[in-house]
Every structure is written in C-alpha cells, then in structure tokens.
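Justification of computing resources. Each target in the renewal requires a structure prediction run like the one illustrated here; the chain below, 836 residues long, is used simply to show the kind of job we budget for.
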Amino acid sequence: MPERVRAANERLRSRPRWGTGLAVAVSACLVVFAPSATALDGRALADAAEGILPVLATHEWPLLLCALGVVALGLCAAIWLLRAGRKAAAAQMAAREEANDLRAELDRLKALLFSEPVVLVEWTASSDRPTILGDTDLFTPGVPAERMLAFGTWLGPSAAQRMEQAVDALRRSGRAFVMSFTSAAGKPVEAEGRIVAGRAVLRLRDIGGIERQLIALAERHERLQRDASAVTALLDSLPAPVWVRQEDGRLAFVNAAYARAVEAADTKDAAARGLELFDRPARDQMLQASTARRPFAARLPAIAAGARRIFDVIDVPTDVGRAGIAIDRTEAETMRAELARMIDAHRRVLDQLATGVAIFDADRKLTFYNSAYRALFDLDAAFLDQAPTDAAVLEALRSARKLPEEQDFRQWRRQLHQAYTAVEPAEHLWHLPDGRALRVVTTPNPEGGVTYLYDDVTERLDLSRRYEALIKVQSETLDHLTEAVAVFGSDGRVRLHNPAFQRMWKLASSALDQRPHVDAVAAWCQVLHDETAVWRQLRAAVTAIEAREPVTARIERRDGMVIDLTTMPLPDGATLVTFQDVTDTVNVERALRERNEALEEADSIKINFVHHVSYELRSPLTNIIGFANLLGDAAFGALNDKQREYLGYITASTNALLAIINNILDLATIDAGAMTLNLSEVDIRACMEAAAEGVQDRLVKDGLKLDIRVAPGIGHFVADERRLRQILFNLLSNAIGFSPPGETVTLSATRQPNAVHFSVSDRGPGIPAEAQDKIFDWFETDPRGSRHRGPGLGLSLVRSFVELHGGRVTIDSTPGRGTTVTCIFPVEKAEQQTAA
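Resulting structure tokens:
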C-alpha cells in the first residue's frame, strides 16, 4: 500500500498546485475519519481523487476546500465528544460505586461512634458557629442544643471554668486535652478535644461502671493532692517550725521555718540530714509521750537561727508516726514582761493624777483605783482592797449620799452598766447632793470591763457660768459704749462690733454680720475719709503676723468729724480697733491752745516789762542811796535830829526797794536760764549762823527767839554759799513776819545719806491747804497773821535757788499750828540747773 500512495502522489505532483492540495486534503480527511487504514485501499483513494479532480472547474475549488474543512472539523469534534462521553460515563460509574462504598463505611463508623452516649461539637476554622452531633439531652435535658456550650449551666463553677479554658486553648492554638469531671446532675463526664482535619472537635462522653469509679477515684486523688499541696503550702508559710516524723523517729517532713531554724539549705536538706531543733532530753520527753500514745505539750528552749528562743511545743501521735509544731514565745514573754512593767508604770502615773480612776474587770470587780478616786468619795481603803463589785461600790456610795439622787436607782444603774457591753466611751454628768458636779467617763476595756474616770468640774462649771455672764456683760458694755469698737480676727475678718461702730461709719448691720475683711471695711469707710495711708496702716496692724504693735492715728472726715483711731493687739491674734469721736475735745483743745498762747504772750510782755522797769528803777535808786549816804556823812555837815530821822527813813526805804529790785532781777535771770551757781564747799553751821545774823535786829524788834538746831559734826556740802544764805534769810524773814510776839522760830539742819535738809519752823497762823500751792508764785502774799507785807518774791526765790541746786522744797502747814518749810539739797556735787 505504501507504494501505491507514493505513485498517487507522484501523479498528483504533476497537477496544478491547487489541485494537488485538494487531493491531499481529501486524502487526509479520509485517513482521519477512517482510522482503520487497513480497510481503505490506497489505490482506491487515489483513483477517487483522480476521478473528482477533472470534474471541478478551476474557480470551484476554493469553495470545495472550505466546505470540506468545515465538514472535517465537525466530524473531528463529534468523534471527540463520543470518546469523552464514554470516558465520563465510566468515571461516573466508578465514583458512584466509591460513594456508595464511603456511605456504607460512614454509616458503619457512625453506628460504631454513637454506640455509646456521646455528643460531638465541631468548629471550622472559618466560622465560630459550632456543629453539634449527638443527643444533648444526655447532659442538658430539655435545653436547646446550643445551650450545651454554656458549661456553667450544667457543670460546677470550677469544672466550667476549666472546660472553657481548655476549649478556648483548643480553638486558638490546637492544644488537645482530655479531662473528666462530674456534672451538676451527678453524671460522670469525659471531655476530649483535639484537631481533626483542620477542625476543632470536642467529644463529651457519659461514662459509667468501672470507668465511673476510676474517674471518681481520680477526682478524689486530685482533690487529695490539692488538699495536700494546700496544707504543705500553708505549713511552709507558717512562721512556726513544723515537723512530721515516721514511726522510727526520722524526719519525714519539715516546713521552711524549721529549715531556717536549724540553718539548713532547704526543707529537703533538713529532713535528709535529720537536723534536730531541740536537744536530746526534749526529744526523749516527746518520744515517751509518743510511746504512751498521748500528746506532748511543754515550753522548751532551743537555739533557732543562732539565737536562743523559747518555744511552746506541741507533739501529737499519728497513724504513721507523730507530728509537731513549735510556737515561738520569746517575743510574747518579752512583751508580757514589758506589758507588766508598763501596767505598773501606768498604775503609778494614774495614782498621781488628780482625776479619779477606777478600773473594773470583765467580772465587774474592782482591780485598780487611785488615790484621787478614794479621796473624791472618801472611801475606805480596806473596802476597796477587797475587790468589791461595781454594784457594791455604787451601793456604798448611795448609802453615803455621794451619788446623784435618782427616782429609779435600778434603772439608772442599769444604764450606767451598759458600758460593759458598749464599744464606745460614754460621758455622764453627776450632780451630787453636796453641790459638787462630777464628769464621769466610762470607757470599755478591750479585754473586758470598764474604766471609770471621775473629774470634779464644779469649779469649771462655775467658771463657765461666770465666763458666760462676763461675755454678756462685755457684750452689753460694748453695745452701750459711745466709742466705736470693732474686733478683727487673725484672718482679717470682723469678729465683733458694736452699734456705735455701725453708726459712726454708716454701715449696714447685715453687711457686718457677714464678717467682711478689713479691706472691704476700709473701702466702705473711705466714702467718708479717703486718706488711703490711714487705712493701709490699719490693714497692716490687723493682718500683721510679727511685730504687732499698737497703732494710733487721727482721722478728719469730710463732714468735719475728728476721730482718734487706736489699735490694740490681742493675745489670741485678733486686733481691737477703737474709733473715738474727739471733735468737741479737739475744738476745745484748739480754743485752749489759742488762749494759752495769748496768756504766754501776755506773761512774756509782763516779764519783759518787769525786767525793763527793774533796770530803769535801779539806776536812779542807786543814786538816791548814794546821795543819802553822803548826806549822812559828817564830813558834809551835821544834821539835826529831825533830818537824821528823815534820812534814816529814806535809807531804809531805798534799801528795801533795792532788795525788791534785786530779787526781781534774780528771778528774771533764773527764768531766762542765765543764772549760774558758784559752787564750793559750804560749812553748814557757819552758813546758818550768818543767815541768822541778818535777822537779829528783826528778832529783837518783834520780841522773838531763834533756835538753831544742828549737829556738831554736820560738816560741809557742795553749794553756792551766797545763794544758800539768801535762801535761809528769806525763810527766816518769812517765819519772823508770821510769828506772834514771844514765840520761837526754829532753824534746823540734818544730814541724810543722800541729802542735807534745812528746815525753818514758826508757830504762826499756818497756811490753808488751798493756798499752799500758790505761795511759791511770783508776787503771791498772804496778809493773814503777818505784820509785814512784802512783795511776795521771797519764797519764789527760795524754790528757784533750791531747784538750781537739784533739790526740792516741801511745806508742812496746819492752820493755827504754824508752818515748816524744808529745803532738801543733794549731797553730790550739784550741777547748774534751770528752774522749772
């Protein structure tokens, strides 16, 4: 056949190209659609092609070729579809058979799976919605299947929490788990969770029989392990050493406190090495008690952690040996001793208190009392030392009428004894029949019983009443004062004020009642007085913390009122401020000042006039005296008796006038502050005798006697001798003028430690009290009882000269009994003084 095909091809090559192509296409179609090449003869094909080709015209060949191509394509597609359909039918048949096999296998596995009471819960990775398989009524009867995953509804709290944590770990991290527990209904349940084919699967199985017993046993074992762990942890946390011994006496368990006490590395090290806490005799005692199957309890010493301690040891026998605990009592014993000392010290302190103290125990018996308690009620010490009950003490006080008189004494006592069951202190006020008031405080004791405190508040209440009365009086006094008063607290706010303050500054009572600050008060008052310096000064005085000094100021308001402001710091930090209306006083003061200035000016004019007149009179008077002396001189001719008498009158009058003028000039010099003293050592006796010599003629003329009294050794002192003689002369002249005939004038001198006293006494008519202050004034005379009326300058000169010496003049006079004038000179060297 190949050779025929090649021959046909050779013949076709010789044809036109398009005819050859057509023949080849036809041949190819036949070959494709007739796969059995052996059934076709090549020659026949060639002959068929050659038979067709000559028939077609040249322009019909393309159409024929297209049609043949489409037919060939359709035939190819049909053949491919037939073959694919046969293959798909065979595959579907195989898949159906496999599905039937899988379904049978699934039914078999499901029957096997649900042969037990079990519930499956499945979660996919892409969804939180679970798929629940199985009968949920096994665990949650009558509840929707979705509620089964609310484990708290059918499990206990602990089991539900464990399940939720396990399921959450399974879904989040794929952690498998198996656990067993008992539901709230008492059913044993086994829960198993794991990842299957990328899905979280939870299996809940109701177990019974042997498995239930095993689960119950496992749960009991787990509980016992937890209890044992808790007990071990508790024992390890105890500060007291704990041990457990086997039957042979070896240590099986010790806690951490025991290990620390024996200085072991840890509890296992202490048990393995058999380190003992107590010595051999103590362990022998515990062994004897264990052999006798009785508990052992004793207080034993031991060395714990390198220090000697005291332990209360309890060792009891057990089924497998014995166990014990050692409680450290070292600090307790120390504290007990310290507490005993403290209680004793407190008792000694309480015994010194002025407040009465009585302590009753839980049995209501007296356990302590102090001296103030016994003295307050005048109780017998022997009775109190017998530890009487509270009720017995109250009966004794009631019998002695030293309790408040109550109508229902039992009810009153019952209320008092409520302190034994109270938790807070209570206070009572007792008014005793004898007038005393007692403040009684009942304080429950922590260990039971009551402590009574008795304080005599009679004086305190009396002081309180008087204080309240004083406050009322003070308030009434302030309210009725004409002065405006305000008290500012340490915070600068008004604490107290009276109506006068409100009226003076025209302030509203409601505003002051709000306790305004001093700044606000100053602002209100500035309406009437806007001088800010005064108000700043007031604010500084009120708000100052240190250097709190009183402040005074004068305020002249716009309406003409003049006010004196005074502040006074108070001890409590407050400040008292007073405003006094001194308008009338200021007006009177101004008038008096103006009048005083006028009087001073008139007095100055008078003194200047006297000075001028004295100087003007002295010159002609000197001439008169000089010529009178010349006339009396025999060298200028003899005078008859009448002329000599007249000349004597002229001389006496001119001498008297000269003395007056000299006195006036001396006083003027002293008043001007121009006089100086010629100080020297003065013989006291000689000076007194010289002064007496100057009045001898008047003594003889008036029939008087002079008694000079001076100690022989009186000595000297520093003074102006001339002025001292003038002082004594004026005093003697004044005493002679007022002494009746036949009387005695006394001149005495005495030396004191710091002064020399000169005194001149007469027995004249005396000086009335109302006139004694005037006798030292210029030109002041008293004609009563005097035979000679002078110009009234002698005593003025006396006082001025004495004061120039730094001394003073005193006068002692009683009408009808005479007068004594005393001049006191200081012993120290006198300095120049100016008369007052």
